[in-house]
Amino acid sequence: MKKAADVMTQTVVTIKGFATVAEAVALMKEKDLRALVVEKRIDNDAYAMVTESDIIYKVAAYGKDPKQIRVYEIMTKPCVSVPPDLGVEYVARLFANLKLHRAPVVSDQGLQGIISLGDIMHKSDFIEQPQSVVSRAKSKRRWPMRGRSVAKRGPPPATAQLPGTSSRNSKLRRPTSARNGCSSRAMRNIPLNILRNWPTAITTASDRGSLTAK
Fold first, then answer.
1. Which residues contact 82 (CB under 8 A, 6 or more apart)?
2. 114 with 8: CB under 8 angstroms?
3. Which pLDDT score is estimated for 192?
4. For the sheet containing 35-38, what is the strand order?
5. How many CB atoms neighbour CB 59 within 10 A?
6. Mean predicted confidence (pLDDT) in 30-54
7. Contact 165, 176 (CB under 8 A)
8. Which of 5, 24, 104, 183 has minimal Cβ neighbours within 10 Å of its Cβ?
């Protein structure tokens, strides 16, 4: 895969930030360019760019005088730059994600060139040697549909076992044998809300008498 240094345009036309927009337009027409790299003011400064879109959208669209507007007023700073050893595939992906048409190529030694969509189209080898992007395999795990909650299964609710009954179906089953002096017939007449608290609900003989009398 080719690098940015292999397809970039090494001849870079620059302009100072204090130049007027009229001077920038004249330089673009002379060199048949659509963008200019703005020179750094100091060594630690960032590079900037002024494009035909900046001139049209920010000057011509509002009827401003290009002779009165400076380049630094409409330029894009800092601009996105790429290293010379970056693969052309990744440069193209960067341009696609950021909606760029061109970017300066900058290394530790300074400005090396400029790369554009035209350079990638006409000088790269993406047709002869396409680079396939390997994506991770999708997980086979099925996720619940949006808006639906998945109920987690937990242990069954604990039920109190009544005296004289088995563990099976003991929730609503009444005792079949006489307990605490109550016969099975009397037990049938005891409400379920009392049986749930059995045997604490029937503790005295007077309670048993009142229940059996109903």
1. 4, 91, 94, 103, 104, 105, 106, 115
2. yes
3. 63
4. 14-15, 35-38, 48-51
5. 20
6. 94
7. yes
8. 183
Determine the residue type at 196.
R
In a domain, 214, yes or no: yes
- pLDDT, residue 147, reads 56
**Both 9 and 112 in a single domain?**
yes
pLDDT of 200 above 70:
no
Q: CB of 102 within 8 A of CB of 115?
A: yes
In a domain, 141, yes or no: no
Gap between the terminal Cα atoms of the chain: 96
- How many Cβ atoms from other residues are within 10 Å of residue 107's Cβ? 14
- Rounded to two decimals, the pTM is 0.58
| Residue 13 pLDDT greater than 50, yes or no | yes
Q: Kindly report which listed range (33-37, 100-104, 128-132) carries the lowest average pLDDT score.
A: 128-132
Domain assignment of residue 98, given as a range: 4-123
- 20 and 84 within one domain: yes
Same-domain check for residues 79 and 26: yes
18 and 96 together in one domain? yes
What total of structural domains would you count in the chain?
2
How many angstroms from the chain centroid is the CA of residue 138? 17
The single-letter code of the amino acid at 71 is V
Pairing of strands 110-116, 48-51: unpaired
The answer to whether residues 120 and 6 touch, using CB atoms and an 8 Å cutoff, is no
148 lies in some domain: no
